[in-house]
């Protein structure tokens, strides 16, 4: 229920404090379903402006944009909260992205290996939202590494997504000829086809190597990050080299009992939140970009409502203590996993002759 506009503008300091206290104790639900945290240090005119019908939407958009953006090393801004479409089927993808955009997400993360770029692009085009207002990410898959193959694959992604530029393209895995692929991304970036470029699943040694011997350093590194695998050391290396930390699997897919963990559950009860919201808020306060996925609109809305509360230092420390410092899935530095990726790429080539088969890797 929307808060009602006061009958008159607050005129005294006491009245301003009263309005502030009312706002801070009442979550103001806006028409988009998003919640807003009011800064206790704001001015009287700012508070009053929220209640003016003609400015409520404008104020909300201004504050949400300020709260939700991170600035990459090249000055490009990126929404800190996005919507990921990993394992979202083609049949569901367009509807899911449409729902996410309706909720308020303006950062959509896909990949060549998800086989749903076409559906993502269709949802964006049909949304009526200006393309410039949506931050779009895709990723180049291993079999398209090497300069020529990478460049060609990005052009194909542009066509499937129905756009003439992509905000961020990542190299999906740290294997094969990623240096050749990286140089293709560098050239596409210089040409203005890509607004930012980065990597995914790069351990600190490979990230530092690429940063040190490339014309353009990666701007983002998307890695598995959640309370059981917090990537603390990797996070510090990313900060040192000006690389934005982005989390895939911010809930660890619930593995290891994350959704029912007693520490996280206790913190969630304290703030009247879900464990998922607590995990997202924890990552956001670490300065990490997160891309939670759900095919249910109500969960998308819940995941979006994480900017109207903040975890205390004590609660952040309690979350830090949960770190197991190991992957909940597999290690990209394990030689056995590297061999698995090699076999997978060869299987795709043998099955199709062109590596285009649709499989959920």
Average pLDDT number: 84
Helix count equals 14
Q: Care to count the β-strands? A: 10
Largest sheet: 8 strands, parallel
Would you write up a description of this structure?
The protein is α/β, with parallel strands linked by helices and 361 residues long. It has 2 domains: 13-67, no CATH class; 72-320, NADP-dependent oxidoreductase domain (TIM Barrel). It has helices spanning 13-25, 44-51, 53-68, 90-103, 117-127, 147-161, 178-190, 204-212, 232-240, 262-271, 275-285, 297-304, 313-320, 335-352, and strands at residues 69-71, 77-79, 83-84, 107-109, 135-140, 168-171, 197-200, 220-224, 244-248, 289-290. The strands form 2 sheets. The chain has an 8-stranded parallel β-sheet with strand order 3-4-5-6-7-8-9-10. Helix 7 (178-190) links the parallel strand 6 (168-171) and strand 7. Helix 4 packs across helix 12 (297-304), helix 5 packs across helix 6 (147-161) and helix 10 (262-271) crosses helix 11 (275-285). It starts with 12 loop residues before the first helix and ends in a 9-residue tail after the last helix.
């Amino acid at each position: 229920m929307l808060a009602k506009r006061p009958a008159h503008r607050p005129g005294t300091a006491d009245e301003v404090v009263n309005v502030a206290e009312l706002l801070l104790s009442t979550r103001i639900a806006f028409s988009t379903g998003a919640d807003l945290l009011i800064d206790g240090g704001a001015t009287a005119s700012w508070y009053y402006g929220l209640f003016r019908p003609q400015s409520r939407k404008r104020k909300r958009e201004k504050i949400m944009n300020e709260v939700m953006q991170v600035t990459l090393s090249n000055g490009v801004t990126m929404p800190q909260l996005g919507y990921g479409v990993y394992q979202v089927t083609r049949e569901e993808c367009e509807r899911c992205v449409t729902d996410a955009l309706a909720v308020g997400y303006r950062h959509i993360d896909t990949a060549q290996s998800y086989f749903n770029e076409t559906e993502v692009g269709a949802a964006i085009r049909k949304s009526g939202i200006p393309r410039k207002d949506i931050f779009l990410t895709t990723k180049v898959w291993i079999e398209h590494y090497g300069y020529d193959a990478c460049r060609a694959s990005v052009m194909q992604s542009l066509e499937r997504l129905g756009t003439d530029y992509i905000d961020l393209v990542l190299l999906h895995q740290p294997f094969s000829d990623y240096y050749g692929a990286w140089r293709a991304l560098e050239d596409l970036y210089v040409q203005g086809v890509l607004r930012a470029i980065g990597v995914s699943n790069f351990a600190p040694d490979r990230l530092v190597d690429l940063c040190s011997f490339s014309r353009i350093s990666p701007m983002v590194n998307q890695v598995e990050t959640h309370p059981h695998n917090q990537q603390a050391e990797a996070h510090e290396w990313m900060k040192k080299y000006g690389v934005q930390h982005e989390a895939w699997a911010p809930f660890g897919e619930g593995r290891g009992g994350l959704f029912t963990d007693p520490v996280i559950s206790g913190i969630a009860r304290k703030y009247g939140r879900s464990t998922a919201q607590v995990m997202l808020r924890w990552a956001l306060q670490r300065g990490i970009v997160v891309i939670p996925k759900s095919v249910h609109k109500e969960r998308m809305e819940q995941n979006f409502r994480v900017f109207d509360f903040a975890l205390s230092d004590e609660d952040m420390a309690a979350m830090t203590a949960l770190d197991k410092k190991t992957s909940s899935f597999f290690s990209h530095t394990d030689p056995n996993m590297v061999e698995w990726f090699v076999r997978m790429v060869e299987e795709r080539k043998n099955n199709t002759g062109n590596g285009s088969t649709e499989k959920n890797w």
